[in-house]
Amino acid sequence: MRILSIQSSVAYGHVGNSAAVFPLQRLGHEVWPVFTVHFSNHTGYGAWRGPLLDPADVGEVIMGIEERGVLPSCDAVLSGYQGSPAVASVVVDAVKRVKAANPAATYTCDPVMGNAKSGCFVNPEIPPIIRSEVVPVADILTPNQFELGFITGRDELSGPSSLEDILAAADEVRALGPATVLVTSVERAGAPDGVIEMIAVTGDGAWIVQTPRLPMKANGSGDITAALFTAHLHTTGSAALALGRTVASVYDVLAATLASGERELRLIAAQDAIAVPDERFEVTALR
């Protein structure tokens, strides 16, 4: 599988492409990383250095890849943190170019906007553009529950919500274009204490998986989740299998990170859990 991944890059730590590329490679896939920013570290530290890349330059890199004549072999496009509002049109154009060359290719959009604890942490011009221009061309969308609420105008999803409301929002998003929606960081009203959940929704059904909640904040966990789910969905053709394998790997990476006492994801140390997921968490059909 060959994946064009348009995301941020950091020199220190693991977010964006710096979180997605190695796990995809560890699964045996070729990745063509294109950077939207190149920072010293992720912005969660409160201070960082490095440039937001000019959208025109991002487009030039993609154009150069196209000129190698390889887009017909591209199986998927993956996008995450965009950096600046104008990058959205570059991503949409890249998706059109890839799909023109290979109609079977898919596009996964991780609509990076914010989360329930931090609120919106990107340029405020970006979320409306993602909602109006990017989401409609996506095949797979991987929002956290907070981002799902923004896209659908459901402010109540910024806190614990009913399963019915979460599924209704996922269905609303699917009506905009994406065939598959993976909702991460699910805060379900009535869920047992000390757990966190993830839900996958397609036209064939919906599935939920639950893991213990680890006492940590892990920047980049959404980026590796989107990457692994994309890969597993392609190779298995099953959203339920992709959900189970993705959650197993991400949980073990987070557990290894917590045990290490380090702030950044321990991707290298936990690489065996990425390559061979321990599918021990039950995936339950919701419908």
Question: What would you say this structure looks like, in words?
Answer:
- It comes from Nocardioides daeguensis.
- This protein is an alpha/beta fold and 287 residues long.
- It has a single domain, classed as Ribokinase (UDP-N-acetylmuramoyl-L-alanine:D-glutamate ligase).
- It contains nine helices and eleven strands.
- The chain has helices at 17-26, 55-67, 87-101, 126-134, 145-152, 163-176, 221-236, 239-260, 271-275, and strands spanning 2-10, 30-39, 76-79, 106-109, 114-115, 119-120, 140-141, 180-186, 195-202, 205-212, 283-285.
- The strands form two sheets. A nine-stranded mixed β-sheet has the order 2-1-3-4-7-8-9-10-11, with helices on both faces. Strands 5-6 form a two-stranded antiparallel sheet.
- α3 links the parallel β3 and β4.
Kindly list the characteristics that best describe this protein.
kinase activity; Pyridoxal kinase; 11 strands; 9 helices; alpha/beta; two-stranded antiparallel ribbon; 21% strand; nucleotide-binding
Question: Could you give the topology of this structure?
Answer:
Elements: E1 2-10, H1 17-26, E2 30-39, H2 55-67, E3 76-79, H3 87-101, E4 106-109, E5 114-115, E6 119-120, H4 126-134, E7 140-141, H5 145-152, H6 163-176, E8 180-186, E9 195-202, E10 205-212, H7 221-236, H8 239-260, H9 271-275, E11 283-285
Parallel strand pairs: 1-2, 1-3, 3-4, 4-7, 7-8
Antiparallel strand pairs: 5-6, 8-9, 9-10, 10-11
Keywords: ATP-binding, Kinase, Nucleotide-binding, Transferase
Protein name: Pyridoxal kinase
Domain Pyridoxamine kinase/Phosphomethylpyrimidine kinase: 78-261
